Prior knowledge:
Elements: H1 7-11, H2 17-22, H3 29-32, E1 36-39, E2 42-46, E3 51-62, E4 65-76, E5 84-97, E6 100-110, E7 115-126, E8 129-139, E9 144-148, E10 152-154
Antiparallel strand pairs: 1-3, 2-3, 3-4, 4-5, 5-6, 6-7, 7-8, 8-9, 8-10
Amino acid sequence: MTRLGLLPLILWLALGQAALAQSSGFGNAQDVKQPVEVTADQLQVDQRTGLAVFTGNVLIGQGGMRLSADKVTVTYAQGSAQRISALKAEGNVTLSSGSDAAEARTADYNVERGTVILTGDVLLTQGANVLAGQTVTVDLATGTAQAQGRVRSVLQPESQ
């Protein structure tokens, strides 16, 4: 397991004020209090199953943070449309906040377990620093991450 400076960006996958309120220790307090705006070509909601599926050019923003994907499925906690239990972004997933960015084919955020799993050609950048692999798993409780699948890391020395 490796401690990463990229965690605030990855952890932002929580999205939504309800999920952000459940998590601690990430993001910018100013951004957390900002409204979450979601745009997409289509939205399907099934109250029976607790699923909301945004498809087509999905863009989710909160303050200076952005998530874009082809499809984002939000699963609400049983009996509560205000609490997110899981979120899955699929297809051309990009997260960005300032000069920090993450790219992957999919991103799974399990609120109840407190884990984020980025899968498929994962590329994390923070300025000139880079971490790449096939899978990156982040444990929100411990603030640690594990990268697998031909991992590549480029860390630039600090300027003096």
